[in-house]
Amino acid sequence: MVASVSKCRVCKQPAVIDLPRHNAKFCAEHLLELCRRQVTKAIEQFAMFRSEERILVAVSGGKDSLAVWDLLIELGYQADGLYVGLGIGEYSDVSGQYAQAFAERRGLHLHRVDLRDQYGYDIPTAARATRRVPCSACGTSKRHLFDRAALDGGYPVLVTGHNLDDEAAVLFGNTLRWDVPYLARQLPVLGARPGFPRKAKPLCRLTERETAAWCIVRGIDYQVEECPMAAGNRHLAYKAALNGVEEDSPGTKAAFYLNFVERMAPLLAGQRAESAELGECQRCGAPTTGEVCAFCRVRERSAAHAPVPVELLLGSKRRAG
């Protein structure tokens, strides 16, 4: 007996991907159409931005950030990229090369910031100097630099490549801890405040697998390796747990996250601690609850510390494990 060929649900041509959560298979053309439609729906449903607004996309060189930048350009938006060199050894070098190559091939503008060259430290050194997990120093640094670049560059909107898997995993972790202030702010778009641009996540309706398929079909080369310093991150464990549930019950992650946004988030609106007590950092002028912002504290402690090669830090983590 000849095995049947999987066919696209839309056109009945040979399919390139099976998406159980949609209970359908798609050819390359209709996969791209699905991705465009889901991103357009997210932008419109959550009023993320208008067609005339300039957008700054935080680009890591990975599949999600390059996919969202590509999708926005495809949909006719004015989007520039921002790459932050974190100094995580070869991983950062390769990631930056992918981001730069993507921009050059498409004639797009990519802003570049280098932590070591411009601020005197990198993430491995910050992790050692602050005695905190690398992801903490990384998140603090990226948030500050993303906000500053958007505001200084006149971009009213900052876009990140957080996908459905990311958002569901964060929601899962926050729910396990019943972290109400974080739950209240876990939205696909956060409005602008003094010192902060509007922030949007247009991929919130697409999974990692779907954004990876977009890149493959579109011929986008990207950094495949995960950040070496993320090993042991709870976020990855939450993703793995949800993937197990999703395998048994396709569509669970989408229902979990999107139903939260639609039904539960409005009930938590009063819990959003949009602090009116923010002052200006004495060092850089950024909004802060204290005299010096978290970024400047990390910078001052890290810049005074001898540089730490990423290999040394990873070796310490392996020995501790």
In words, what does this structure look like?
With 321 residues, the protein is α/β, with parallel strands linked by helices. It has a single domain, classed as 3-Layer(aba) Sandwich (Rossmann fold), CATH 3.40.50.620. The chain contains 13 helices and ten strands. It has helices at 28-45, 63-74, 89-106, 115-119, 123-130, 134-152, 164-176, 180-185, 208-218, 234-248, 252-264, 294-303, 310-320, and strands at residues 17-19, 24-26, 54-58, 78-85, 110-114, 157-159, 189-190, 198-200, 279-280, 287-288. Strand 9 and strand 10 (287-288) form a beta hairpin. The termini are far apart.
Could you list the spans in which at least 5 consecutive residues all have pLDDT below 50?
none
Order of helices and strands: EEHEHEHEHHHEHHEEHHHEEHH
Mean pLDDT across the residues is 93
What global shape is seen?
Answer: globular
CATH class, named Alpha Beta
Assigned CATH architecture:
3-Layer(aba) Sandwich
Fill in the keyword field for this structure.
321 residues, alpha/beta, Rossmann fold, two-stranded antiparallel sheet, 13 helices, 50% helix, globular
